[in-house]
Amino acid sequence: MGRTGLLLGTRKGAFLVAEEDGGRWSIKGPMCEAWPLHHVTWDPGTGSLIAAGGSPWYGAAVWRSTDMGESWTHSSEGLTYGDDGPKIDTIWNVTAAHGALYAGVDPAGLFRSDDGGRTWSEVSGLRAHSSEPHWQPGNGGLILHSITPHPSDPNHMWIGISAVGVFETRDGGATWETRNHGVRADFIPGPAPEFGQCVHKLGLHPRRPDVLFQQNHCGVYRSDDGGANWTDLTPGLPSEFGFPLVVHPQDPSTVYVIPLNGADKGRHVPDGHLAVWRTRDDGASWESLDRGLPTRDAYVGVLREAMATDQNDPAGVYFGTSTGQLFGSPDDGDTWRLVADFLPAIWSVETVQLDA
Amino acid sequence: MPRSLIALFPAAPRQLDVAAKDVEELIRALDGRWPGMWDRLCEPGPRLREHINVFVDGERASLTQPLTPRSVVHIIPAVAGG
Question: What is the ipTM of this complex?
């Protein structure tokens, strides 16, 4: 196993938390001029750190570093809907896929870069979908936050937009279909609609690309047919509401979520009891994992991008809270420890293998 | 130019002379020398970003504000943006 590096996007910049000898962790940051960054990740295609977000003064941009954060460049060239279109407020997610980078933005849209994030162009087929005139923002905005590429087909992808739902493309983004059947939207009267569901996070395992999981505003779901139909997995969880969801790197049937106590109840962990919940059977049953976590008086939240696993076996699992704590488990979530505290509100956690 | 903008474009000086007929042309000239600066100061429209203030000879200005050869232009991030 190599050393693990944790890439953090926070309200006040990017951080790199690196595993050191003796179980210690070093902290580098804040980087990127302390910009609010919704996502910091690794682009294996260019061997670069990629950070994305938006400054309240200087707008949305993607930052790049080819030297593990020692120096950065930034660009938003092409990240625009044009002079007649809405202003892009911020970038919520950047995902590397098949040699390209994709960015999800607010107001919702999808952009692609073929030069490592220097220049961008809109994947315009998405906003050309017939549902677009009816898209309405959720609490966090009209945000495209989940970009889930098929592991082997570069033309195949799923995306998630808050309060709009899941969409799938099989032709490189030229056309899209809604994929929300079976997902509740309790905030919309009447039967569940074709779109309007508030997906919070999507996940899949590369060995089972037809099986997707989602944490939604109204529950946790699994699809066995590429998103065409969804099954409710919420029974057994303390709440239907939550944000992050990650799939175990080796076991496609193991998934982690962090339930929160409800959209209108504070959005913190239920009863002040911080716990990660794990299923090992595709959501048929769930277990609470809290050894080493505060189980009382911990009124923290964890946002959609703020949990990740490494590629080790057993897997390291990590999550960051909205109050600046970073927790890690070396053993698939069985035990936890505090890795870092007193950080800015953590918006995203990703892992990278150091010394690779 | 403000410290926070120079931090994004380290090769740019805090103060310089630029020939331009109006504020828009001035910022495009800056962008020509430091690519990407337009996108940091302006949004689609085009217009100045909400929390970017430009003052010409002490008066708050828009992109269309004419400039004279003796105009003094300040680019200042608004306190409201924090």
Answer: 0.94
